[in-house]
Design goal:
Number of helices: 4
Shape: globular
Largest sheet: 5 strands, mixed
CATH superfamily: Beta Polymerase, domain 2
Length: 108
C-alpha cells in the first residue's frame, strides 16, 4: 500500500472521530525511517484511544499493517506506527509542550 493511500486512510479515520488540527508532514527527505508524520489533537484520553483504535481498524481494513501502538496506558499521547506513516494523537497541552511540528519542520 502506498504512503499516500495510508495517509488518506489515516486522515479519514481521524476525521470520523472528530480529531482536530490534523497535520500531515512529509519527512521523506529528512529520514529513511518513514515517509509521513500525521499529528492530530483530541480533547480527552478517551477520544485519543478511540481515534487510535479507529486508525488501526481503518488501516487494517484497507490492507495495511499496524506495527505498534504506544501510550495507551495514559491516553495523553498515543503513537500508532503504520510503517511508512507514524501517527501521533495528542491532547492539546501535550501537543503544545512537545511541538513536534516545529521540530520536524525545522529539519526540512
Amino acid at each position: 500500500m502506498s504512503s499516500k493511500i495510508l495517509v488518506d486512510t489515516i486522515v479519514s479515520a481521524l476525521e470520523d472521530i472528530k480529531a482536530h488540527d490534523i497535520k500531515v508532514l512529509d519527512v521523506s527527505k529528512i529520514t529513511a525511517m518513514f515517509d509521513f508524520i500525521v499529528i492530530a489533537s483530541a480533547d480527552s484520553s478517551r477520544q485519543t484511544k478511540a481515534l487510535a483504535s479507529n486508525v488501526q481498524e481503518k488501516v487494517k481494513a484497507a490492507g495495511g499493517n499496524i506495527f505498534s501502538v504506544e501510550g495507551e496506558q495514559t491516553g495523553e499521547w498515543l503513537l500508532v506506527d503504520v510503517g511508512d506513516v507514524v501517527v501521533h494523537i495528542m491532547q492539546p497541552t501535550v501537543r503544545e509542550y512537545y511541538d513536534l511540528e516545529a521540530l520536524w519542520e525545522k529539519r526540512e
